[in-house]
Design a protein that fits this description.
Elements (H helix, E strand, L loop, with lengths): L26 E4 L5 H11 L7 H7 L12 E5 L2 E13 L2 E11 L8 H15 L4 E4 L16 H9 L3 E12 L8 H8 L4 E4 L5 H11 L3 H11 L6 E6 L2 E8 L6 E7 L8 H15 L4 E4 L5 H8 L2 E12 L6
Parallel strand pairs: 4-5, 10-11
Antiparallel strand pairs: 1-2, 2-3, 3-4, 5-12, 6-11, 6-12, 7-8, 8-9, 9-10
């Protein structure tokens, strides 16, 4: 997440403060269907490590369950978007969690204070909706990346100048799918002898899957992502089940195309290879669909993925956040 604003930090009132003889004053509009494709092109121009196709960009923006047009301002100049930002406010554990999902400024419009203008607008909007802090990047469950890639260095510097602090980091790992067929017949046979079957999720499994969620205390975010993957054709979810009870699940394409996760195994059955099998079935399916690399998103158990599939760390993301106060608006 994150464009490269290269912003000089000028403040502005009203819409924007730009010299009339330099450039026509941009108009601030909410992200809409009419602007979606041109804003996607601006995103792909500025977020060079995270380009998105039309379907995925729509899913990340207008189809976000908490999409709020007032928190997705676009600055338009002569019918051309030159800067934009999108934030969301989500209800989580009885409080409002706010985050900036994406932003960017056209290269020829940097240094004019546009990113600052947008950020002030978004901060004020999130504060008005009850948020006490604003995170950057990790707007779970529907997010672009789990933080900001520090290779977007001008964007990181921009945020730091405006009071955002680094609060942690996470990382992705990559699996080269060409190195194996990802089959594990011996493991499958061993688990089969224990009455465990690993297969693709079907619509008829929805009740058993929901029961697994309830039994294991699966978060609302993971439920959202799993059901997103299950809605695709074919479903990008594999389960392990025994006597009609789902005891493990793994998914891909839930967050972004080619990204693996989430995955979980019932607490009492961990360590027996069930998670390994559903993971490998996902890798098989990803390879059959034409993916060359599987991206493991926001990794938890690094040793597991390294051992089972030779995964290597590929990207790092910084978590950044700022406490909001009325003076920020």
């Amino acid at each position: 997440m994150g464009g490269q604003p290269g912003d000089s930090g000028e403040s502005g009132t009203g819409c924007l403060e730009l010299e009339a003889d330099e450039v026509k004053e941009p108009v601030c509009c909410p992200l809409s269907e009419d602007l979606l494709e041109s804003v996607r092109q601006l995103h792909n121009e500025t977020c060079v490590y995270d380009p998105l196709d039309r379907e995925t960009f729509r899913h990340k923006t207008l189809e976000d369950p908490d999409f709020d047009p007032a928190l997705a301002p676009v600055l338009v100049e002569d019918k051309r978007p030159v800067a934009w930002m999108m934030a969301v406010c989500r209800q989580e554990d009885g409080r409002v969690r706010a985050g900036v999902k994406m932003f960017g400024v056209a290269p020829d419009r940097r240094g004019m204070g546009l990113a600052h203008q947008l950020l002030r607008h978004v901060e004020a909007g999130c504060l008005a909706r009850g948020a006490v802090s604003l995170d950057v990047g990790f707007t779970r469950p529907n997010y672009l990346t789990a933080g900001i890639d520090p290779r977007y260095t001008p964007a990181v510097a921009f945020l730091m100048r405006r009071g955002y602090q680094r609060t942690g980091e996470t990382f992705n790992m990559d699996v080269d799918l060409s190195t194996s067929d990802w089959q594990a017949p011996e493991l499958e046979e061993k688990l089969g002898s224990q009455g465990l079957v690993c297969r693709r999720l079907t619509p008829q499994d929805r009740g058993a899957l929901e029961a697994c969620f309830d039994r294991e205390g699966t978060s609302a975010g993971w439920r959202y992502q799993i059901l997103r993957a299950a809605s695709l054709e074919p479903p990008r979810v594999f389960i392990a089940e025994r006597e009609g009870e789902v005891v493990a699940f793994a998914a891909f394409d839930a967050v972004r195309p080619g990204w693996f996760g989430p995955m979980a195994t019932s607490t009492g059955l961990r360590g027996g290879g069930i998670g390994t099998l559903v993971y490998l079935r996902c890798l098989q399916d990803m390879k059959s669909l034409g993916y060359q690399v599987a991206v493991i998103n926001a990794v938890g158990p690094l040793p597991f993925y390294s051992r089972v599939s030779g995964a290597v760390v590929s990207r790092v993301f910084w978590r950044m956040s700022k406490q909001l106060a009325p003076s920020d608006s």
